[in-house]
Amino acid sequence: HYMLKEIYEQPKAITNTLEGRLGTDHVVVESFGNGARAIFDQVEHVQIVACGTSYNSGMVARYWFEEIAGVSCDVEIASEFRYRKSVVRPNSLLVTLSQSGETADTLAALRLAKESGYMSSLAICNVPGSSLVRESDLAFMTRAGAEIGVASTKAFTTQLAGLLMLVASVGHCRGHLSAAAEAELVKALQALPLRIKESLALAKDIEALAEEFADKHHSLFLGRGSQYPIAMEGALKLKEISYIHAEGYPAGEMKHGPIALIDERMPVVAIAPHDHVFEKMQGNIQEAKARGGAVIAITTAGDDTLWRLP
Ligand code: M6R
Fold first, then answer.
1. Are 219 and 266 in contact (CB under 8 A)?
2. What value does the mean pLDDT of the chain take?
3. pLDDT per position as a tens digit, 261-274
4. Is 159 near ligand 1, meaning CB less than 6 Å away?
5. Ligand 1 centroid vs 154 CA: distance in angstroms?
6. Rounded distance between C-alpha atoms, residue 230 and residue 96, angstroms
7. Among 255, 272, 276, 275, residue whose Cα is nearest residue 309
8. Which atom of ligand 1 is nearest to the CA of 100?
9. In terms of CB atoms within 10 Å, which end of the chain has fewer, N or C?
């Protein structure tokens, strides 16, 4: 079916997203439009607006903007943003994210922002010529190819690749990102298609885990830092495609309520790569196991720490 086809198209889709937009050690700032450099030089705040999966990719980018580019960033669901009064900070860039470029709330948010004092607007979008692209000052096409499946898959990962390039460009223009750090990011971006192929090669193991999951009615997806929105996206996908109730939570919030729900009938999916909050995630996984929860952990290849947890 289309969803599976599109999942397997990700290495190619990301290759297309990167094509012609990376130098040997830098991101080509003009990939975001001819006027991009002048805007990125001055930007002091980024406001991201989107819906659904696109919102989740924006949430990931928030961590990146503040950590990598040193620029403050807020992310808001478009259907909230458009119906409330918000204060626009000086030199704010509005970034809209959308696969289709036609989502009514995101489009309305852009139109509202254009009258509210934002310095400029940038659309990260998959459909050239869409309303969002036509009405924005700057545009970056994700080039994921047509997404027919209802669940965003390659649209999401190509958005993330585009967002990381945006963060690197803004960090570069603002003088916050060192040349060495930018070169590292470029290397990581170039490695992405291969990394995704490696993940896709795990399909048989993942299918076996899915068998265990299939008869459950509820599940909890946990992550910390930039993996928290990845957990939210996992939960969204499960709800949408499997009709299994799923919640995405910041793992540190588990003890403030949802832990009461964890037992052997409730699988817990923990996104726990070997990063600066890995130890904290280990603590959360232990708590879930202590309540009888069946934990499925997604971690860094070759790291067996989580197997050895009591
Ligand atoms: O086309 P958009 O990215 O603006 O669509 C927004 C959401 O409707 C969309 O991301 C939706 O949440 C996904 N298709 C879910 O998989």
1. yes
2. 95
3. 898 889 999 999 99
4. no
5. 12
6. 19
7. 272
8. 1
9. C
